[in-house]
Amino acid sequence: MLKLRLVLWPWRHRPWTRKMRRSEQGVGEFQPPREDINAPDLYIPVMAFVTYILIAALQSGLQERFHPEIFGIMATKAIVVLLVDFLFVKGGCYLLGVQSSAPVADLLAYGSYKFVGVIAALLIGILNPSRTLYLVAFFYVFFANAFFLLRSLRSVVLPDPSSAPAAVGTVSHAQRSRRITFLFLIAVVQVVFMGYLVRV
Fold first, then answer.
1. What is the mean pLDDT of the chain?
2. How many other CB atoms sit within 10 Å of the CB of residue 31?
3. Measured on CA atoms in the order 151, 152, 157, 162, is the torsion positive or negative?
4. Whole-angstrom Cα distance, residue 69 to residue 67?
5. The whole model's pTM is what?
6. Are 134 and 117 within 8 A, CB to CB?
7. CA distance 39 to 106
8. Contact 4, 71 (CB under 8 A)
9. Which of 181, 151, 165, 176 lies closest to 12, judged by CA?
10. In a domain, 8, yes or no
């Protein structure tokens, strides 16, 4: 519940840095999601992915457009969005020379949190047919997701050498500027992904 609240209402959350602990070998490593709210988990993304498919099918049924293939179509749509988002972030990290890029599971988790906002927008669209309220809800969840990603992915794109478990090297001012621009680009492009997902 705390993680869902963070995804939908990230504005006043502090701090955003992930907690560290010493492993048995004496190496610093990140704490698991159960002990750190800032750690990406896969439970919420997987549940949100499945719920998105069910809500999208429900909405198509309420619009009298339901057919059994809708489940496969929506699942394919969601997977394509996830893969494109993942490749965008991973490719950008590679091109910018981010040495301590996050594990694949972490990047997929960060990319999948958008489904929570998409579900909220779809539910509001189902419960209230007002186009204005639906648009307000959509843009709110987009900005919340964008802000959440800005703060969460900052530790991936701009790792802190003192807190990262692996050596990350120094970052010049020009590199830092490019990475900050890339972070904002990740946040802004979410409106395209989320807009595509809410079109059932």
1. 90
2. 13
3. positive
4. 6
5. 0.89
6. no
7. 8
8. no
9. 151
10. no
The owner of tokens 């999601």 is 33
53 within a domain of the structure (yes/no) = yes
Parallel, antiparallel or unpaired: strands 20-22 and 28-30: antiparallel
Residue corresponding to tokens 């539910």: 123
Q: Which two tokens stand for residue 146?
A: 């964008």
3-state secondary structure of 186: helix
pLDDT, one tens digit per residue, over 15-74 is 999 888 877 776 778 888 999 999 999 999 999 999 999 999 999 999 888 999 999 999
Q: Residues 51-88, buried b or exposed e (16+ Cβ, 10 A)?
A: bbbebbbbbbeeeeeeeeebeeebeebbeebbeebbeb
Matching residue, tokens 């800005």: 150
Helix count and strand count (H, E) for the chain: 7, 2
Query: What is residue 28's three-state secondary structure?
Result: strand
Q: How many domains does the chain have?
A: 1
For residue 121, give its domain range: 41-198
Mean pLDDT across 112-129: 93
In a domain, 17, yes or no: no
